[in-house]
Amino acid sequence: MERTSVYVISGFLGSGKTTVLVKMIQKFKEQGRKLGIILNELGDECVESHLFRGEKIYELLNGCICCSIQEDLRKTLDIFMTQNNTVDVLLIEGTGVADPVEIADTLLHPFYIDKFQLKSIISLVDASHYFEYQSIFSSTKEIRDLLRDQIISADYIILNKTDLITEKEKEKIHVKLKKIADSKAIITFASYGNIKFDTLVEKRDLAAKFPSENSYKKHHHISTLKIENIPNIQKIDLEKWLNGITNLIRAKGIVFDIENSSYTEIQFAANQLKVKEGLNTDYNKSVIILIGYKLNKAEIQKSFENRFIS
Ligand SMILES: Nc1nc2c(ncn2[C@@H]2O[C@H](COP(=O)(O)OP(=O)(O)OP(=O)(O)O)[C@@H](O)[C@H]2O)c(=O)[nH]1
């Protein structure tokens, strides 16, 4: 079954995310695509609902900077999954203070990886405030780091509001962005989010990889590996095996127990394995996702099979 294409739109407060989102909706509709939209609002009210009248909108309210973003998003993705095939393109607008990696990370979860395909992380940069936000005098470290993360994790960067700056400033920002961004990322200029839709939706590298792999890549050379068909394994054995993998940073997964129609959730971080057993689910697959620094995928897959299957 075709996975639902997901586009994440990130960018700092007021950079033009909603402006671009409205344009994307229009274009996708012209193509006859069935759209779902997730808005991640700060505060407890979506003040922009009127812009999306008639669309299938899901709001993640109270989407503050903390981890609740991921939980809310999971709940919303679950709703999409129960509405089979009603949506073939999902657009997610992050709050101006969200790190898109968190959204990508959620889409990487074993529950969702077979259903959703992260096509692009689009990041808007407000050209008119670029130097102000980058300045150590008029901005905070948190803001600078956040803007940096938004740029690093994107595969499509829109320098928006160029109508408010000079050609010279535009060039200067472009040079800076090229230094920060992933080498494969597309950097484009726009005012009022007017970009070439075709270049935005055309297939790029991100689709061929696991979501979020790209996002971490620039700085961390992170790779991911999906192991499927997991037999019943003792927790201690799995923990030992995971701890033996060179450069592994994180693992997460689910192991389905056919007899009890329940699953065990697996979370491995900081060399420790945590499991939650006996959870109810409609999901009936077993899969573990490994995330690490330049993982030797073939070797790990083989080691898993030797140890637990044959
Ligand atoms: N001058 C100028 N204004 C723009 C441009 N793009 C968007 N705006 C305006 O900037 C304001 C913010 O745009 P939005 O699209 O709402 O930005 P946003 O990133 O969704 O904002 P938040 O929801 O606060 O995060 C609106 O008043 C837009 O009309 C642009 O390229 N040039």
From TrEMBL:
CobW/HypB/UreG nucleotide-binding domain span: 6-187
CobW C-terminal domain location: 233-306
Annotated keywords: Chaperone, Hydrolase, Nucleotide-binding
Catalytic reactions on record: GTP + H2O = GDP + phosphate + H(+)
Family annotation (Pfam families): cobW (PF02492), CobW_C (PF07683)
Domain of life, source organism: Bacteria
Sequence similarity: Belongs to the SIMIBI class G3E GTPase family. ZNG1 subfamily.
The name this protein goes by in its record: GTP-binding protein
Organism of origin: Metabacillus fastidiosus
